[in-house]
Design goal:
Blueprint: H1 3-13, E1 43-44, E2 53-59, E3 68-69, H2 71-80, E4 90-94, E5 101-105, E6 110-115, E7 120-124, E8 135-140, E9 145-150, E10 155-160, E11 165-169, E12 177-183, E13 188-193, E14 198-203, E15 208-212, E16 225-230, E17 236-240, E18 245-249, E19 255-259, E20 272-277, E21 283-287, E22 292-296, E23 302-306, E24 319-324, E25 329-334, E26 339-345
Parallel strand pairs: 3-7
Antiparallel strand pairs: 1-2, 2-26, 4-5, 5-6, 6-7, 8-9, 9-10, 10-11, 12-13, 13-14, 14-15, 16-17, 17-18, 18-19, 20-21, 21-22, 22-23, 24-25, 25-26
Length: 355
């Protein structure tokens, strides 16, 4: 990876990490081949225009980042003879600058904790009493807790990092929880219940505060809501998957707007998955069928897309989860390539992205 990209990523995350090994590390025979290092910077849109999205790197496992095994991982390797699992089918991501990165690995039925500052990789796999079956998404509350939706368990699990304890959170019945997002403005956790076609809000004690939505295609109705993201003003964005649209709601659950329709052309949705917002309010949507990430303004106008089908740098095979941290570093779960790709949004002093 070019030296400038390494410096850009270190600056974007605030971590002194040598990322030259990203996409260059050797892979086991059972893994997809590592993409070749690009001989030029990768950015979007085309070189003739000012770049707005820049590719920074990718990784499939802790070894790609030169991390050491944590205590749990060392014990597991000793007892089972197995090495640390690489990403099987990553989905949800939660990242904060100068804090560990969490990844929900649906295919591996576990959650990865990657602490670049301490150079540690931990695997949160639960206990005999409480094991992950299908972790989908995760969110942290800023108080040391991580919340994970498990669609097969029909539950939200809470992980206390200090105590390293995994417990069930919220006794309220959920059918198939998928997306989850924390709204610090209201200190609420929003959860998409795909099978119930609803969004449910919980306080941090696990009490249900509100739920809204029902199956349908009218404004405020859902047809399998799957992913969530909270805007800076507290608005909630919902991927309404089989209505092929993104809906926006006020913090109290009032419908505000929607955009999107089914189609296989840019500006349309084929299999919309993760949704996220950057600091300028642009809306990013992963499309697992189109193998790209589309960027829209808050009115739903397509501004830009990045990524095409493939396994090279900046290419995707079924992108699912997406997370954008407070420094506009973009993390995309490239599920079928079994990796996380990292990009950054270049705001050019808040100049809007032009179509």
């Amino acid at each position: 990876m070019p030296e400038r990209l390494i410096k850009n990523f270190a600056a974007a995350t605030g971590l002194l990490v040598l990322l030259a090994a990203l996409c260059l590390a050797g892979c086991a025979a059972s893994r997809p081949a590592a993409p070749a290092a690009p001989d030029r910077e990768i950015a979007w849109p085309a070189p003739a225009a000012s770049p707005r999205i820049e590719w920074l790197g990718a990784f499939r496992g802790a070894e790609d980042l030169g991390l050491n095994k944590g205590l749990w991982s060392r014990m597991r390797s000793f007892m089972t003879g197995e090495e640390l699992p690489f990403l099987v089918r990553p989905y949800g991501i939660d990242a904060q600058a100068d804090a560990p990165l969490f990844i929900a690995d649906t295919g591996g039925a576990r959650v990865h904790l990657i602490d670049l500052q301490r150079r540690r990789h931990e695997v949160v796999a639960g206990s005999e009493e409480l094991l992950f079956r299908s972790p989908i998404d995760l969110a942290r509350d800023g108080r040391g807790h991580l919340y994970i939706t498990d669609s097969a368990l029909g539950a939200i699990l809470r992980y206390d990092r200090k105590k390293e304890v995994l417990t069930r959170f919220a006794a309220t019945g959920l059918k198939r929880p998928t997306g989850i997002a924390y709204a610090p403005q209201q200190a609420l956790l929003y959860v998409a219940d795909a099978q119930a076609h609803q969004v449910v809000a919980f306080d941090l004690n696990g009490a249900e505060r509100r739920r809204f939505g029902m199956r349908g295609s009218a404004a405020g109705q859902f047809n399998f809501p799957t992913a969530l993201s909270v805007a800076g003003n507290g608005d909630l964005l919902v991927t309404d998957a089989l209505n092929f649209r993104i809906q926006r709601f006020a913090a109290d659950g009032r419908f505000l707007s929607a955009f999107g329709q089914a189609g296989d052309a840019l500006g349309h949705f084929s299999r919309p998955k993760g949704v996220a917002l950057d600091s300028a309010g642009n809306v990013y949507v992963c499309d697992a069928e189109l193998d790209t990430v589309q960027i829209f303004n808050d009115s739903g106008q397509l501004l830009l897309n990045f990524g095409t089908k493939g396994n090279g740098p900046g290419q995707f095979l079924m992108p699912t989860g997406i997370f954008i941290d407070e420094r506009d570093t973009i993390y995309v779960a490239d599920s079928y390539n079994q990796r996380i790709q990292i990009f950054r949004f270049i705001d050019h002093d808040r100049t809007p992205i032009e179509k």
